[in-house]
Amino acid sequence: MNSFDVLIVGAGHGGAQAATALRQANFGGSIAVLGDEADPPYERPPLSKEYLLREKSFERLLIRRADYWEQKGIDLRLNQQVTEIDASSRTVVSKDGARIQYGKMIWATGGRPRRLSCAGHDLAGVHVVRTRLDVDKLFGELERVERVVVVGGGYIGLEVAAILRKLGKHVSVLEAQDRVLARVAGEPLSRFFEAEHRARGVDIRLEAQVEAIVGDRERVSGVRLVGGEILPAELVVVGVGIVPTVEPLLAAGAEGGNGVRVDEHCQTSLPDVYAIGDCAEHRNRWAQGDWIRLESVQNANDQATVAAMAIGGRPEPYQAVPWFWSNQYDLRLQTVGLSRGYDDLVVRGNPDTRSFSVIYLRDSEVIALDCVNSVRDFSQGRSLVANRATPAKAALADLNSPLSSLR
Q1: What does the DSSP 8-state code read for residue 40?
Q2: pLDDT tens digits, one per residue of 215-261
Q3: How do 126-127 and 111-113 pair as beta strands?
Q4: For the chain, what percentages of helix, strand and coil (3-state, to nearest 5) are there?
Q5: Looking at the whole model, is its pTM more than 0.90?
Q6: DSSP conformation letters of 287-304
Q7: What distance in Å separates the CA atoms of residue 152 and residue 146, rounded to the nearest whole number?
């Protein structure tokens, strides 16, 4: 049975960064990274953007060169899925029955795409976008596809819709709520992106409930909505969130529910077991101390560094200001902070110019910004969020007042 000083389960952004951070901190013990895919660690955000469009090759998505892991003495093991954890003996069991012992463990498995449960959800031609294999399968079918239905009006759904329109497909986006991006943004941003997609020919359907996926000879031929309307489609993309992959941890006794719960140093309730990234539920100071999961590369990387520092004996609490981004057509959306719980907002600039920001306030404090084609607002607005600034609304709206000058 193999044994490692640090075992990292998950070879995405968080797992790769955790291993790298340990070596950068001169950790000299043995490290293994277990990944459940056949590919070495690679960037996920381009999957629904440049990689789907085939503007970026897979080799350019690699987080590190293929020989990096061996050079750094990191045992990279692919096609390894952990199915069981024995916290008392500090042992994990993989799907193929292999047993591995650990001194400390970092759980960085992220999540798996949430699937539809309606009739026809398993027909050929129904896709998700989470891994390279997902996107390769989707791309491989596009040549014989004219009509696509995207279920979900969040970031993934809108990004995929933008790429598919660029590829000349007829695209419909179904959103169950009354606006797109409803979970993460205010109405001005939602309406802006709805208008942008519609102007490019995307059929945005709001308050649209999927009743069933219909098929012909075991392949999708359309989507039936509640009410009976059928939207013809040769391909369906489902983007309705993820389910955190934490079942082995919870079965081993770790506290959690919506993910696995971690403290400020990313440690779970199990001894010497840490969790980071999309699957880690933590109290976030930028969310009023609520328990949340953050699904972003930034969060995965920052928590990886926090866990590595704790293992290396130099613990620092996780306090990073969240930030995110999304590319759709020629629009670059950059977000800093968390807008949840806002009670007021300011639109800075004119959305008609396609360069503006939405600034979110709670009790007069700036808590988040959504910046569309406005890099300056994004970079300067970060300090407003970090410092819990309370500038006047008129100053926030005034383009002649740089955000860096406000307090």
Answers
A1: P
A2: 988 899 999 999 999 999 999 999 999 999 999 999 999 999 899 99
A3: unpaired
A4: 25, 30, 40
A5: yes
A6: GTT-EE---SHHHHHHHH
A7: 19
Q: What is the Cα–Cα distance from 72 to 26, expressed in whole angstroms?
A: 11
Pick from 205, 198, 197: which is nearest to 174 by CA? 205
Phi-psi region of 12 (alpha: psi -120 to 50; beta: other; left: phi over 0): beta
What would the two tokens of residue 127 be? Answer: 């896709």
CB-facing half-sphere around the CA of 278: CA atoms within 13 A: 20
Helices 155-166 and 187-199 pack at an angle, to 10 degrees, of 20
- Could you tell me whether strands 259-261 and 344-348 are parallel, antiparallel, or unpaired per DSSP bridges? unpaired
**Cα torsion for 194, 374, 54, 191, to the nearest 10°?**
0
User: What span, in angstroms and rounded, lies between the C-alpha atoms of 271 and 254?
Assistant: 9
Among residues 397, 352, 394, the alpha carbon closest in space to that of 377 is found at 397
Distance between CA atoms of residues 60 and 168, nearest Å: 25
Contact assessment for residue 349 and residue 356, using Cβ atoms and an 8 Å cutoff: yes
pLDDT digits (tens, 9 = 90+) for 287-334: 999 999 999 999 999 999 999 999 999 999 999 999 999 999 999 999
Report angle CA 378, 381, 387 to the nearest 5 degrees: 145
Task: Give residues with Cβ within 8 angstroms of 177, minimum separation 6.
Answer: 153, 183, 206, 207
How many Å apart are CA 371 and CA 356, to the nearest integer?
Answer: 6
Measured between alpha carbons, how far is 102 from 347 in angstroms, rounded to an integer? 51
Instruction: Tell me the pairing of strands 91-94 and 82-86.
Output: antiparallel
Distance CA 119, CA 198 (A): 29
Q: Tokens for 387, please give them.
A: 């410092």
